[in-house]
Amino acid sequence: MSENLVGIDIGGTKILIILINKKGKIIKRIEFPMINKQYKNVLEKILLNLKTFGKFKSIGIGSAGDINSKKGIIRYSPNIPEWKNINLKKYFEKKLKVKTIVDNDANCAAYGSFVLDGKRKNKNLITLTLGTGIGGGIVIDGKLYRGSTGSAGEIGHITINPNGPKCSCGNPGCLEAYIGKKGRISIAKSMGFNKHVSDTKILTEYARNGNKNAIAAFSKIAFYLAVGLHNIIHIFNPDMITFSGGVSNSFDLLKDTLMKELNKFTFKTPLKHVKIRKSNYSKDLGAIGAAYLSRE
Ligand SMILES: [Zn+2]
How many whole angstroms from 228 Cα to the centroid of ligand 1? Predict the structure, then answer.
């Protein structure tokens, strides 16, 4: 029987499908844009691609949003609001007769990071996905922690300031309201960066070229990230915290302020122990982690 595994990352703008072997090496990688969001069309397109993969053992699917991982249902995803209560597990198991699991994309990323970045040795590991939104996944004692209803790990929605700006979830002052895409843009403006910032890439380029306002903006973003990590470290006492997603590529611009702020307030013993770093597998982490989870 083939030991190959399939991992699928369902995003709001694209679908990523990978086939990995037992050792985690990517054998096939297919990406296509999410143009027609009719779920039946998308699932059929995924299915057609999977049929070109030969034999594989199981399928892991990661998606943003509210996922019922026990039943394999996407209850609701903010990136694809057209999809409601879609049972992906049932669909693929019926069509392909292969075990299928579905989980939150940040949970998948955390599990992938536990296997790849943490080499399964860093048993307590937290991953933050720094993108348009801020996702979180928690691995405790080598196992993904999902909570009672599968809702654990919403680190983007911990409250940083109850009087803060409104978050995409409707609440005031979430971590995501500060360091999610919208928050990053407003921080850049407040720090006097007057170029049009549509995403963090532009801000990064300016900061790397020595633009003082862009550097100050990263310092401010790092400050809020530190507030979030401070809470995480005190609750979980993790071995490792990793970052994935687009902004993780700018981690070098965040690191100094982040560590300086943590050193001011966070308890010394857990702070000295925890390794804080960018994931080395950032781009495909969600899909790889989903594939590994399907084998558990
Ligand atoms: Zn929120």
Answer: 13
CB atoms within 10 A of CB 143: 12
Measure the CA–CA gap between 196 and 161, rounded to whole angstroms: 27
In the reported structure, the alpha carbon of residue 167 is separated from the centroid of ligand 1 by a whole-number distance in angstroms of 5
**Residue 28 pLDDT grade (very low, low, confident, very high; cuts 50, 70, 90):** very high
Q: How far apart (Å, rounded) are the C-alpha atoms in residues 217 and 291?
A: 36
22 C-alpha to ligand 1 centroid (Å): 37
Tell me which H or E stretch contains 201.
Answer: helix 200-208
Cross-strand bridge partners of residue 166: 172
Task: For residue 65, report the distance from its CA to the centre of ligand 1, in Å.
Answer: 12
The answer to whether the CB of 73 falls within 8 A of the CB of 19 is: no
State the Cα–Cα distance between residues 25 and 65, nearest whole angstrom: 28
User: What DSSP designation does 135 have?
Assistant: E
Q: Model pTM?
A: 0.94
**Predicted pLDDT of residue 86:** 95
89-129 pLDDT per residue, tens: 999 999 999 999 999 999 999 999 999 999 999 999 999 99
Measure 224 CA to ligand 1 centroid, in angstroms.
14
Tokens describing residue 172: 């005031």
Tell me the residues surrounding ligand 1 (ion) with CB < 5 Å. 157, 167, 169, 171, 174
Q: Which domains does the chain have, with CATH numbers?
A: 5-108+284-295 (3.30.420.40), 120-279 (3.30.420.40)
